[in-house]
């Protein structure tokens, strides 16, 4: 009888210890899961396209530039800019010389971190018009191709896109 009583006490003690260990493990696991941050979007989660209304223009004709940023992820994506001016558009001659910038180089941009969050599936569309003038506000040469480079901020890596246009030679030139 004494042995049976010891066996029962031992079994109850082992069961109590097992329940305590299971409770501690459950608390530790729930704390660990709660401390894992949710997944945030990266540059791999977005698509970015830059295009114009036409590929060839007459001299002096306004070039309409459109940039479309789309969050393809099931989580929000945050786009970061290092100043208050936001997106940038650069027009480059075929030789790589920058001929025009938007916002203009004389724009005073505040040096602040600006963040914009795109919800899952959200699209942000931006429009810029270029009047075919250079940095000195004179007309750019015709019969040349120009690269339009659009920078839309940073999501871990830069979000950038390009397209090319051609400006025809002036008639009678």
Summarize the structure.
This protein is α+β, with helices and mostly antiparallel strands.
Layout of helices and strands:
Blueprint: H1 2-35, E1 46-52, E2 56-57, E3 63-71, E4 77-81, E5 88-93, E6 98-102, E7 114-118, E8 123-130, E9 144-155, E10 157-167
Parallel strand pairs: 2-10
Antiparallel strand pairs: 1-3, 3-8, 4-7, 5-6, 5-9, 9-10
Distance between the termini: 118 Å
Can you list the strand order of the major beta sheet? 2-10-9-5-6
CATH architecture of the largest domain: Sandwich
Q: Write down the secondary-structure element order.
A: HEEEEEEEEEE
How many domain modules? 2
Which radius of gyration do the C-alpha atoms yield? 30 Å
Count of runs of 4 or more consecutive helical residues? 1
Using the coordinates above, name the CATH class of the largest domain. Answer: Mainly Beta
- The general outline is rod-shaped
Percentage of residues in DSSP E strands? 35-45%
Total beta strands: 10
Which regions contain 5 or more consecutive residues with pLDDT less than 50?
A: none
Structural class: alpha+beta
Task: State the major sheet.
Answer: 5 strands, mixed
As for the CATH topology of the largest domain, it is Immunoglobulin-like
Name the average pLDDT.
Answer: 83
